[in-house]
């Protein structure tokens, strides 16, 4: 079972392993046939594993996991848009900002339950994604990149615009009251773990939905419009509509990511959405493997972990200040270059390659 | 051309690109269950005819009728739903999709499940996918390329890719299929197979063929339409057209295309790889 959707194995072409007989075979065949069952099972496994992991690590690590999880939301949407749909977006951070500010405003004004707040953030960014999508459906390559870049640069600056500074808090942003863990979990339940739970649960839901989508018709229409727009149209694909749908989906995911960011960091401020965030998201998606949902996870994990190692005071103490402060970007850039040189299809491509090698060794030994 | 009812009618179609008249009052019928060839020297307007039918280019004057209904303001993505499929000059396959997925894209017209059933992976989405896959495999089997279903187009020989492209057009079960230079780049043996294939198609679907290989045109077409400088200068059976003095003059007067003229006047037994001008229909349509 894989989440890489650009080139799924033809299901009937798979060699029949001994497992395919008996009960295991029945279960395997059923999973192959029923996407819902397969993806839900994977989601449940992920939830259990994450619940175990978050319980086993320190609150500091839990917070890191929460960061990773909301980055995963945004990156997964972006990999569908850019990797499968071929639409470049250098402004994905802007959608995260919209999600974060929506979350902050709704929480501060109406104090809705968190799920409803995040849903509102998703809805608002989906609308923004629709508007951008309609405009972008006519743009290509460098024009699209330029337009989205302008969005990333311009949108966070809007908070300083006089009429809305009161509402949006200007450069200081809006503080978000933390959502404490429910009392049912016990009074000593760490807030960080609760935040990790919220973030991870959302990430799993996003992955589940996107995996479903990319295993459907849309998972073919997207690469088709990316590869040859004219041939796609002649095959009956409404190219503009597909692009707009993808833009909405990707924006909604980023909006959820931004909403979670506001909840986890208890702040929605322009400083959290610099242009580098948008560029880092693109880099994470390329690093993980364009178009691969699993790759979006690997990319996000590296994106969050690398600055953490790099800002380790022991490691950077002897470096000049301006080198040390740029170390995260330097290391991340180096990782990106090395990985994409070795594996043009990113980390997920690398894992698959290793998997194939191991499998070949094993069959050589047994056969 | 009177006995079977016309599937597609072009009436006085005129297309201008700036000062250039690409099509000048062209009228002809595409009858049901026949193979209609569109020939003419380079720049005669053949590709423009296809682009008008597909909705890439709007005629400045004249009109189109599809099964008796006026065809106006249609867009390329409406074609398969109308029952018209087109193969592109060159290939137009999707390199990032496997062969079977390429053909499944062509079957889009038969898809039923919508966005929400896809988002929540409802069983109907799975059933839909399975049905599309079956359709695609059936077509690949018919065209004798089922064994490459899991491969990517880039890994396959050109002739096989051409078959996949044809499968992608036919899987939509069109009533009319527009073939743009299907023989370009094929070997003599492959052209013979293609001729047999096109003749076999005629039972189920009507065909319009733009082609430079005159022997293929003469062999498979029931009717031939000849264009020159945007004007329709002759139509009729392959034999009538071959002997038409206007047609001979048009081809002989055209220096670029004189090899085709030789074939035409001699009834051509040799096959040439006539390189097509420009970047193929794809890029022409893009420019349009
Ligand atoms: N999109 C376009 N813009 C401008 N001129 C065009 C366009 N498409 C075709 N033409 C011109 O129209 C004429 C007919 O072209 P075309 O239909 O491609 O000829 P054929 O396919 O018969 O070789 C040519 O002179 C060509 O240069
Ligand atoms: Mg042409």
Automatic annotation (TrEMBL), chain B:
Keywords: ATP-binding, Nucleotide-binding, Transport. It holds the Pfam family ABC_tran. Residues 8-254 form the ABC transporter domain. GO terms for molecular function: ATP binding. SUPFAM superfamilies: P-loop containing nucleoside triphosphate hydrolases. The keyword Nucleotide-binding applies. Residues 259-288 are annotated as: Disordered. The keyword ATP-binding applies. This is ABC transporter ATP-binding protein.
